[in-house]
Write a structure and sequence with these properties.
With about 90 residues, the chain is an alpha+beta fold. It has a single domain, classed as YlxR-like (Hypothetical Cytosolic Protein, Chain: A), CATH 3.30.1230.10. It has three helices and five strands; from the N terminus they run βββββααα. The strands form two sheets. Strands 4-3-5 form a three-stranded antiparallel β-sheet. The chain is globular, with a radius of gyration of 13 Å. The termini are far apart. The relative contact order is 0.20. The structure holds zinc ion (ZN). The site of zinc ion (ZN) has 7 residues, from loops.
């Protein structure tokens, strides 16, 4: 809740642990087929700041895989897809 009483959904970045408004974060989710999708709704999701350092840390430390309860697979490829999605 803000000082004005308007509710802003907030989520925690699995890279740095900071809580931010959901709109400022990139959503990563597991697709029904089992792949890792970037910037989609639905499925089990996790959030990361739109910053390469947070994407890197979330993948390297395994916190993203833990949050998704799913292995990441191609870590390098996922990092690149996340960084590409920051530009939206
Ligand atoms: Zn972060």
């Amino acid at each position: 809740m803000t000082a004005h009483g308007k509710h802003v959904p907030e989520r925690r970045c699995v890279g740095c642990g900071r809580v931010r408004p959901q709109a400022e974060l990139l959503r990563i989710a597991i697709e029904p087929a089992g792949g890792v999708a970037v910037d989609v709704r639905g499925g089990r999701g996790a959030y990361v700041c739109r910053a390469a350092a947070c994407a890197e840390r979330a993948i390297r430390r395994g916190s993203l895989a833990r949050a998704l309860r799913h292995p990441i697979g191609d870590a390098e490829g996922l990092r690149d897809r996340m960084v590409a999605a920051f530009g939206d």
